[in-house]
Amino acid sequence: MESNKEIISDLKDLLSIVNDGKEGYESSSETTDNIELKGTFLKYSAQRAAYAEELRAHIAEHGGDADNESGGILGALHRTWIDIKEALSSKEDKAILEAIKTGENAAIEKYDKYIADYVDHSDHIDLLKRQRAGVTEALAEIESLQARSAS
Predict the structure, then answer these.
(1) Counting Cβ atoms within 10 Å, is residue 73 exposed (0-12), middle (13-18) or buried (19+)?
(2) Closest of 35, 36, 20 to residue 100, by C-alpha
(3) Cα separation of 151 and 146, whole Å?
(4) Fold category of 4-150 in CATH
(5) Is the dihedral of CA 82, 86, 89, 95 positive or negative?
């Protein structure tokens, strides 16, 4: 990587994805009437809030300003898609879980991209790997909930 500026940009990109996830989980928790899903969604919303704080700290360590409190444009589009699907499906939990899976898979792809750039992200590679593992665990739980709701 050519500069510290690019590292900050990468971390801000991840921060945006994490904030998207936090907001998506919050929105989903407000939409579902299923108590189990609501609890799961709130758990992962809190997890993403913690991840965001960790990323902000690393951005600050690199001299960047981590003022991104909300997700990015793609996240906004994804949340809009969730809102539309929820409205069209009358708050159907199946549609919510499918939308969350889409978001989690996108987050894992971003983490993989930056973890692969080990040299440039060496000072926070453990953080990225740990957060990615958390997203993977969330995805597995969402898929499990989805499988149970389908049966």
Answers:
(1) exposed
(2) 20
(3) 9
(4) Ferritin (1.20.1260)
(5) positive
- Report d(CA 57, CA 101) in Å as an integer: 27
Task: Report the Cα 24 to chain-centroid distance in Å.
Answer: 8
C-alpha distances (whole Å) from 149 to each of 86, 93, 95, 115, 144 are 16, 8, 11, 34, 9
The pTM (predicted TM-score) of the whole model is 0.84
* Separation of alpha carbons 88 and 139, rounded Å: 24
Q: Tell me the pLDDT tens digit for each residue of 58-101.
A: 999 988 887 655 555 555 555 544 554 554 455 688 888 888 88
